[in-house]
Amino acid sequence: MSTSTETSTETHAVVTNEFDRDTAVTLREPGVYDADLSAGWTIIHAVNGGYLLALLGRALGHHLPHPDPFTISAHYLTPSVPGPAVIRTETVRTGRTLSTGQASLFQYAEDGTEVERIRVLASYGDLDALPDDVRTSATPPAMAPIENCFGASDGPTPQIPGSSAITERLDIRLDPACVGWAIGAPSGKGEMRAWFGLADGREPDALSLLLTVDALPPTSFELGLKGWTPTVELTTHVRCRPAPGPLRVSITTRNLAGGFLEEDAEVWDSADRLVAQSRQLARAPRG
Amino acid sequence: MSTSTETSTETHAVVTNEFDRDTAVTLREPGVYDADLSAGWTIIHAVNGGYLLALLGRALGHHLPHPDPFTISAHYLTPSVPGPAVIRTETVRTGRTLSTGQASLFQYAEDGTEVERIRVLASYGDLDALPDDVRTSATPPAMAPIENCFGASDGPTPQIPGSSAITERLDIRLDPACVGWAIGAPSGKGEMRAWFGLADGREPDALSLLLTVDALPPTSFELGLKGWTPTVELTTHVRCRPAPGPLRVSITTRNLAGGFLEEDAEVWDSADRLVAQSRQLARAPRG
């Protein structure tokens, strides 16, 4: 029946973009959500940390009385793998304009016991309730026009070594000044800049920004280091609901020392607003 | 007896500097620490958020197998007041080089129930175990020599309005470029820079850096805003054990928007090393 099929399609359309489909969570009981970590968001074998943060962020946004993550701090404990997971949330405090919650994502050991992967503390609010005042001295990153930037399928292919399923989910166009690493000529600067979108055209929102801040190649590549940069802790501030259209992401590392480095990310929307700021502490690659 | 008195003095000397005395915690049972929030670290009536963080940091450093906070994220829930408090800690994960813990500071309502003030998630390590590699592009903040900077007792008195006991605990010398607010002529820039020490000469360490990142007047003063800037969340990375001597602290706000602002702090030691980085999300003053 044609009508029935259309209705079914419409119903599914809400969740058939890749991001919303793969960050869906199912309420098991109050505060407890089942999830399935998709193999589609992996870098080599590791599940992307921003994707995981978005899953936790979605569960907290459902559990808390406020919808949007204003500040969310994640400590990464053990490596996640594709497959089933459970997210346990807790309301820490509720207030008029902000509420604070905690959430942990667990996966299952072979004997069925839960192994904690990530723990987050977050304060949520309502971005639509904020006043319009903007007094910022921040300016968008200097970035080449998107048509001059390099995507995964372009000339000097800036791909993360190994097979990375996540590259098919994302439309990342790296600024030409930050692709030297892909041809063996890293700039030596701790900078990575790119235009960012979801490959299927799903527009950005507060939740997808949690993915965006941790989706670019690591700055360590442009510092001439190869190998993995595992996140210890990642804190993201969502400052404004993003307008539709491509985002600009700028990531900077200033201090690589003692085997650790920080990555500061800024995300700007198509209306030239600073929509998210994040900082992470990561282990530096040995290479 | 002279010898006995000397011994007693020596014993007390370990805890008679103001910072260690006032951030002391007493083990009540495994994971639970009693504390007393000192009125000596208040700004008007509010207990300083960095002082509170140091208390939580001390309890976690005792509870976890690693001594030093590498990254500690604090969400501030309700205003603390001078008086008794209890800190409850939890080991989240222990690893070879890092361990992760959680802690909450509670105070007591009139009926004796515990009210949570702050909750933190933190990953601890051992700063002495880090390699010496430093590849940083960060440079110390441009700062006037300490003798040209302004302390609480100097000419154009840069004091926080109201009676602030904490000013007697700290030796803060503000850069002349950042004291306009004190004479009604704020620079309009979201910048605050100062030399920092503890007034009684207690040298900096990893724990006292948790105080240092939140001890300067808020950048909002130089943006021409008066009133309070309550912290929602503060994350601090301790990157290096500080050398003895005065610290330099630089705090920057780039984005004041929607009633919130971020404050990014950097702390440099006398050996020109970047010893701590922090970022907080705070509510902007209305004024």
From TrEMBL, chains A, B:
Pfam families: 4HBT_3, 4HBT_3C. It comes from the Bacteria. InterPro entries: ACOT8-like_C, Acyl-CoA_hotdog, HotDog_dom_sf, Sec_Metab_Biosynth-Assoc, TesB_ACOT8-like_N. Residues 159-282 form the Acyl-CoA thioesterase-like C-terminal domain. Residues 38-123 form the Acyl-CoA thioesterase-like N-terminal HotDog domain. This is Thioesterase family protein.
